[in-house]
User: What shape does this take?
Amino acid sequence: MNVHKLEAGRESVVASPYLAPACRLCGARLSHLFVDLGMSPPCESFLRAEEVDQMEPYFPLKVLVCDTCYLVQLKEYVSREAIFSEYAYFSSFSTSWVAHAKLYCEAITQRLGLGQESLAVELASNDGYLLQHFRPLGVPVLGIEPAANVARAAIDKGIPTRVDFFGERMALQLVEEGNAADLIIGNNVLAQVPDLNDFVAGMKLLLKPEGTVTLEFPHVERLIAENQFDTIYHEHFSYFSLVTIDMMAQRHGLRLVDVEELPTHGGSLRVYLTHEEARRPVSVRVGEIVARERRHGLTNMSTYASFDHKACMAKRDLLAFLISAKNEGRRICGYGAPGKGNTLLNYCGIGTDFLDFTVDRNPYKHGRYTPGMHIPIRPVSAIDDAKPDYILVLPWNLKDEIIRQMSHVAAWGAKFVVPIPYVTIIDPAERST
Assistant: This one.
């Protein structure tokens, strides 16, 4: 074993360089730890009742960072086919996310002057939550979605959808069919791609000469600043800064021309890419955010080295609250069964000894159990029946939407617990006054 000194002075023991994995973007050897969240099952592998008493696969949640292109990444512990063949996440069950998609469609149609002769292609189009909004705008669309069960929901809405993984192979096929894109959309898909270079090369091939790519993804700057360790799970292979996105674009003959900061998913970026040959002007926002990332240490390994300790502290903070509440005889349930919630539950070891159950708006999950911790998932109405003292908000990025929807729990004195970036207790009775 070799011992490498990180810039923060903390020693990190890693395997021999001959065994170190290669960065999935630039190919450099990875030797710097970002965070180790232990072993966890795939976050969307919800269990049926008859599966709870069977063997369950666990994989490492060990995250590394590249000291060449600064890509934060997991190894491909679980294949994309295993994750996405049947998928439990349906985007349309989040009211705020659908509203976000609608606003985007209206704005991008006007910005790019899209019309009946245009084609908008969404990669990982899920259940049609976004493409449906182009219909009243008169813009033809095509969805690409690898999960057949989710794609079926989009097809039932009348949205043309191909069930496949996107990359160079599929891009060439689409172009041969006359389906080159004026707009390529990738919302929260870039993180889920194990072969980044194949994916981005595919976008380059599919994009018309004057076309635009927009990508949305959680911003690693916010992940670090707000201790969002639970957004790490096996289906997210990579976590991006704008510095890394710029390097990725240049590597494939694309140009980063604009960026917007969004509140979604705990803080995201929406980037705009064009062909390098298009020579579009570059927004001043690109340089401003890149400069800010550098000031905040996102090109310095010591910034990444300190994150593991922050995750440990948040774990102890949450467990201390839950232990105290249970010792006082309080009843606690969860709200939501998102991927991030399962990372949190498994990393912290929170099972039914702490949470009686959790609820979710997605009927697909009802009657199932969370992976690893086996917490039963019930309809939202179960909260009204149980009248718990505390409700642990697992999709904390939707906390405002959830607290508005569930404000009536104030009638029996229930309070919400938000676990990230640190334990926060929210009394809905005080919010309504």
